[in-house]
Write a structure and sequence with these properties.
By secondary structure, the chain is α+β, with helices and mostly antiparallel strands. Helix content is about 35%, strand content about 20%. Helix 5 crosses helix 11 and helix 11 packs across helix 12. The chain has three domains: about 120 residues, Ubiquitin-like (UB roll) (Roll), CATH 3.10.20.90; about 35 residues; about 130 residues, Beta Barrel (Cathepsin D, subunit A, domain 1), CATH 2.40.70. A hairpin with a 2-residue loop joins strand 10 and strand 11. The strands form three sheets. A six-stranded mixed β-barrel has the order 6-7-12-8-11-10.
Amino acid sequence: MRITVMTADEQILNLDVDPHESVENLKALLEVETNLPIQQQQLLYHGREIQNFEKLSALGVKDHDLIMMVPSSGSRESTNDLSFNLDGSAVNPGVFQQHIRRDSNVIGQIFQADPELAQAILGDDLNKLQDILRARHQQRSELRRKELEELALLEADPFDVEAQKKIEAAIQQKGIDENWAAALEHNPEGFARVVMLYVDMEVNGVPLQAFVDSGAQSTIISKSCAERCGLLRLLDQRYKGIAHGVGQSEILGRIHVAPIKIGNIFFPCSFVVLDSPNMEFLFGLDMLRKHQCVIDLKENVLRVGGGEVSVPFLQEKDIPYNFLDEERHSKHASSSGPAITTGTTEKNANVQSGGQPSGGAHGDITKRPEFEAKVARLVELGFAREIVVEALKFCDGNAEQAAGILFGG
């Protein structure tokens, strides 16, 4: 159902809530919208204060009902340092940050609703926190402006061409928003970062993590990697050129054949050598075709030689961080024929787990030997690395408490 909440400063909020929602959960939602902490909220329905444990349905709250929100008694003096400027920034960002940090439940809710804001609250950069608060205020203002425009369009002259164009655009945008909401509910994995496909290989006896990319025309190796594998002496410079894709790189030449080991079997492979630090070794479509490879995403393996050998794709925690940098995998072109395009990887965002909420200085726990293991475990749960690092710092390295915060507990 849809209810209207009016604040003490006459701000009007229209919220979609479940009829069986508790008053406490409604206050948590209002905290996100108004930045007024739950402990300082007093909600009135028909002039009577309603308690946190009560359910909206039990109180008789119906669709389009009005609820008043005022600062609770005894909290008015303390709200001075927790108030906000006209641009949405905190009057006293340090006090605001420490106030939020003291409530792990609120931190967990913010992690779920707005991970970027939660990361800023747990971080040490107050300027970044202020910037995010201003951005959120601007977003809310823009949303209210659009709502007012939509209300105005309902009363517009039906023969006004410009008004009808705006109505058409509003209807189209509403369809887009509904499609987005449906995707969040039924296909949330579509918004997750996709980790590219890597497998362990040996090139001329040197172990490497190979980026498997069926969108690349040729198999590519960097100059430094070829030198490390002892193959640079075989470089045929007659195949020099320029690789054009997103940006460009110099093609130094071609290595016509060298042994690669996949699993326990050796295969011949040819390479285009690029003078590029952004990519080490890319296993492209030419060799995928030659060796009858199958990218089996159901079993998460690469089958080579028509199924003669299978090697598992690496998990994110097993891929070096520099490989996960989006700048490390630019698009390239082969030395001959049409341009080829390599896949790109999104910037890695790891997750961590944490310990006792400290809310303040947490030391350099990132250098503890078990820290990366905790990060890897939480990354597998689908959280971004940067966010979980902050959660672990906040919890002084306690993985269970950090996980509870990340899951909104």
